[in-house]
TrEMBL record:
This is Polymerase nucleotidyl transferase domain-containing protein. GO terms for molecular function: nucleotidyltransferase activity. Residues 24-64 form the Polymerase nucleotidyl transferase domain. It comes from Paenibacillus ginsengarvi. It comes from the Bacteria.
Amino acid sequence: MDPRYKTVTDYVVRRFTDHLGDRLQSVFVKGSVARGDCVWGVSDIDLVLAFDRPDQSDNALKREIEAEATRFPAGDSLVIQRIGDDRLRQMSAGTRAYWLYSCRYDTELLYGTQPDHFLPEPPKGIELAKLIAPLIHADGAVELGKDRLERRESRHLAKRMLHALALPAIAGGKLEYVPPLEVANLDFPVRLRSHMDAILTAYSQAPVITDTEPLSRAWRDCWAYIGDFGII
């Protein structure tokens, strides 16, 4: 994790550990901040608390911390989420699979127990790919049709393409997980390979994009390729 995030993450951990005590099982960041491929000022700080039975005081503290966090560097990018048995039971099968997958492979522990020590294992192989592919598609598709992509939007679209392009390798059992920046090392047909520089640039640099057609074309080719594997 980029050390510049520590000011805000340390603050959140301290406030919640003081408030929750032994109810708090774990605090961790997940996603690009945990992996170290985030873009400062663009990427969200996805911070996850593991505890059950939230009450009104817990929710009030969350709102207070989110407001106060804006005083810290990158604090306006803070997203506080909660995981627990009750939340997992309420999720759809796809959302649950995606959460468990992300919490197993894309996390950095800040307090307590490693999430893979208390969370169930995610599905694997083709089962996982089929469960999460529709979520990835729906989430990325919100950026399509725009005449201009702001920095968060271009990175978001590229991120979802990289996640999607990892699915055939996962579905085939070759790999359990592929970090976004390593997706380019997989084997792809020439047509997809021609899009890779644009996708990686959008992901790693998060530029403002005024000509959105190249990424839109990459998106269409990406999902046509994935469709050949019977994933979606």
